[in-house]
Amino acid sequence: xxxxxxxxxxxxxxxxxxxxxxxxxxxxxxxxxxxxxxxxxxxxxxxxxxxxxxxxxxxxxxxxxxxxxxxxxxxxxxxxxxxxxxxxxxxxxxxxxxxxxxxxxxxxxxxxxxxxxxxxxxxxxxxxxxxxxxxxxxxxxxxxxxxxxxxxxxxxxxxxxxxxxxxxxxxxxxxxxxxxxxxxxxxxxxxxxxxxxxxxxxxxxxxxxxxxxxxxxxxxxxxxxxxxxxxxxxxxxxxxxxxxxxxxxxxxxxxxxxxxxxxxxxxxxxxxxxxxxxxxxxxxxxxxxxxxxxxxxxxxxxxxxxxxxxxxxxxxxxxxxxxxxxxxxxxxxxxxxxxxxxxxxxxxxxxxxxxxxxxxxxxxxxxxxxxxxxxxxxxxxxxxxxxxxxxxxxxxxxxxxxxxxxxxxxxxxxxxxxxxxxxxxxxxxxxxxxxxxxxxxxxxxxxxxxxxxxxxxxxxxxxxxxxxxxxxxxxxxxxxxxxxxxx
Length: 487
Prior knowledge:
The chain is built from 18 helices and 14 strands. The protein has helices at residues 15-19, 27-37, 59-69, 79-82, 85-97, 112-126, 140-152, 168-176, 196-208, 231-244, 268-275, 279-282, 313-325, 331-341, 351-377, 401-409, 414-426, 453-474; strands spanning 43-44, 135-138, 158-164, 180-185, 212-219, 247-251, 285-290, 304-309, 382-383, 392-393, 396-397, 428-429, 431-432, 445-448.
């Protein structure tokens, strides 16, 4: 049988699937994988995957997981010599409340005891009531986003407003569901800040194209930009969406990754309720969080949640149906989510160790954020805004005309060409800015700040050495770099 006669031949699979792109695991990543198979060094800074780059898991999380995974350890005569009392009691609590243990399916929307821990966390964080019935536990925040977009997008005339640059989960998912992505540009010159004129421009452009904007997503702290929105930014988003009857999607998975005091994280739910009626009673809001980020980095377990505010109860039942198709979110990840949202308290045996481990990881990330920004800003033709939060740096590249021509000759986008050269010569795997829908006429790359601090200086040294050689080979930048204040 000829290949193109097969049912799943490339010519016959979904056009939506073929059009969808996910640059984080695109050409650069696949090239890096081939390099790895060939026995060459690869430093994977292309994705926010902390444990892959050496970050250690928090002890309390893994001890409780060990006990719920192997309950026989609770009866071992040395158990209390290995595990602290609150680790043992927390494991017993989960085993009591999770019917069938962690090897059994849970409810499609997640185990009730963990949903209550999440609701209590949200209420404590924001100072406003939260209900466990409005919380769905999921296999990572990415699955949560897809649940919501599956309900939101009904066809090509439905649009989702997303920040540019944006995380490709949104563009890929909207494309898979045959919707339209409506990008609103963040202002790089002022620290990737939110601009109301840019929001309005994107909205009008969608209207003129016959697209109905049904949702608006923002990422705070930002991915790939590393920015943190101000309180006023969030207020502006509420006003904008309320006036136009747009659902707000708050991607807040990096809420613990904040490295400066001037722009602390504030949840959209808090802002919504701070504003009072009519906003707190009328604005539709869905917020996302994850176990993969923060100081935890438990990416491989795939755990997350979304909380619904002012969402139709009948739609909530449809989400339950959608979750039921997947049977159950992974139960070990629910245990981790419970711990993250209900960590050891002052006076608990594990409190000091848990807090010390957590704070040192965040402090180290802050130091690495400072180091990577300073490194890029010391390089000819490169400029980086501050990394206020998240796990990424998104510097702007002013590439020489000769490099742009060489990329064209190679059939590559200029930033892809640069990143492939960087990978080839240093082993550092990054993501080109074109994978994030960067502003027209600009070039960027995204790198994480996740290589461990003891190795991070070497990563920065390789970046500088590569760039110096690249500029020597291809010449001066095609345009001067002007770094403006965001104030």
